[in-house]
Write a structure and sequence with these properties.
Blueprint lengths: L6 E7 L6 H8 L5 E8 L6 H11 L3 E5 L6 H9 L6 E4 L11 H4 L1 H4 L5 E5 L12 H18 L11 E4 H6 L9 H11 L4 E5 L15 H17 L1
Parallel strand pairs: 1-2, 1-4, 2-3, 5-7
Antiparallel strand pairs: 4-6, 5-6
Length: 233
């Protein structure tokens, strides 16, 4: 591991040709950066071509590709197992979350005050939550369910911005699929007693048609995972 380089960023991607270059170019500027592990979940647009060009320009980029589309959780699982950093941060390939806020997000971990930090969109009033209120309501209901089931006090369980101690995250078994990562990882962290903190972040949600949002089947699966991991394990 390179001296003073401790940060691994994992980026799951699917058809993000319009934004991925901007995101990566911002990530490579982060202090302490060790690697950016990108997993293209079998994109059908120009995302693979753009990633190859970026990887040629920036040595920290580790570019991987699924031969078939498997969903976000599968992409994250592939990426996480390739990380080496003492801190691992999840960054989406769109511009809804600003990479410039990662340094503040990971401070509680660097200072030994937390094992995990969630970037909450609901701790500040000036954040544009979502173009559709349904997504806001779904998130709040899921967060409340997780708080009750696992004795947590979170405000935004479905946030994509999550920072972890690397050794904890790499040991976590991930068995869910689709959008199940957020529920499963939170449940498993709570069960082993990790210190989870939240940090306010800005959020610029894309319109529903432009983003990969939870569908009704994903919502049903999410509540199933809440039940499964709280009762069955």
């Amino acid at each position: 591991m390179q001296q003073n380089c401790y940060l691994s960023i994992v980026v799951p991607l699917y058809n993000e040709e319009a934004t991925v270059a901007t995101v990566i170019q911002q990530l490579v500027k982060l202090p302490g950066l060790l690697e950016i592990v990108v997993v293209d979940d079998c994109s059908s647009d120009r995302t693979p071509h753009i990633l190859q060009e970026l990887a040629n320009q920036h040595p920290p980029i580790v570019s991987l590709r699924h031969k078939k589309n498997q969903g976000k959780t599968a992409a994250l699982k592939t990426a996480i197992q390739r990380t080496r950093g003492s801190i691992v941060v999840v960054q989406d390939g769109d511009l809804e979350y600003h990479p410039g806020e990662i340094s503040d997000l990971i401070k509680p971990i660097l200072e030994g005050r937390a094992d995990v930090v969630y970037g909450s969109r609901f701790l500040r009033r000036d954040t544009a939550i979502c173009a559709y209120p349904q997504q806001y309501i779904v998130n709040r209901v899921l967060t409340a369910a997780m708080n009750v089931a696992f004795g947590l006090e979170l405000t935004d369980v479905e946030t994509c911005y999550k920072a972890f101690r690397g050794e904890i995250l790499r040991k976590m078994p991930i068995t869910s699929s689709g959008f199940g990562f957020e529920i499963e990882i939170t449940a498993r962290l709570a069960k082993i007693g990790c210190e989870i903190q939240e940090h306010s972040i800005t959020y610029r949600g894309r319109k529903y048609e432009a983003g990969k949002k939870m569908m009704p089947r994903d919502l049903i699966a999410a509540f199933f995972y809440v039940f499964r991991f709280s009762v069955i394990g």
